[in-house]
Design brief:
With 141 residues, this protein is α+β, with helices and mostly antiparallel strands. The chain has three helices and five strands; from the N terminus they run αβββαββα.
Length: 141
């Protein structure tokens, strides 16, 4: 059975995409620890990050860094956090979020009742920042 992330990537479930390329996508989580919390996900279903092909891992890291720059710009964040937990969904994903405090690195503190309109607005801010940073060719519309 396909992972929930594969279903989002394939369009079987909705997703607020901010980045799409041949190897990876990035979309907002529906349970953000801070506004603009993005997940960077390989199109290929791999459960454990250490099992990724090194070139794909490097690509995902690059996409995460670009998305992190966009989140920082979009939200005027003082710091950006990055986390690979691998416990929530059996499909590699990198969390990119505003690192406002150590508590923001604890996914148990995620907002489980985020408003759809707030998620939509955050996605649009990140897309705009990605375009301003020169990454428009990969911005998902």
């Amino acid at each position: 059975m396909a992972s929930v992330f594969s279903m989002i990537i394939n369009g079987d479930l909705p997703g607020r995409f901010v980045w799409k390329d041949e190897q990876a996508v990035a979309f907002l989580t529906i349970e953000p620890v801070t506004p603009g919390h993005v997940l960077v996900v390989p199109r290929e279903e791999v459960d454990h990050w250490e099992q990724l092909d090194p070139a794909l891992f490097a690509h995902l890291s690059g996409v995460a860094q670009k998305c992190g720059k966009a989140v920082k710009k979009a939200f005027d964040a003082p710091r950006i956090g990055l986390l690979i937990a691998g416990l929530e969904v059996p499909h590699v994903h990198i969390h990119v979020f505003q690192g406002l405090s150590l508590e923001t690195f604890d996914l148990a503190n995620a907002n489980k009742n985020a408003k759809p309109e707030d998620l939509d607005a955050a996605a649009e801010k990140i897309r705009g920042a990605l375009r301003e940073l020169g990454f428009g060719e990969h911005v998902a519309d």
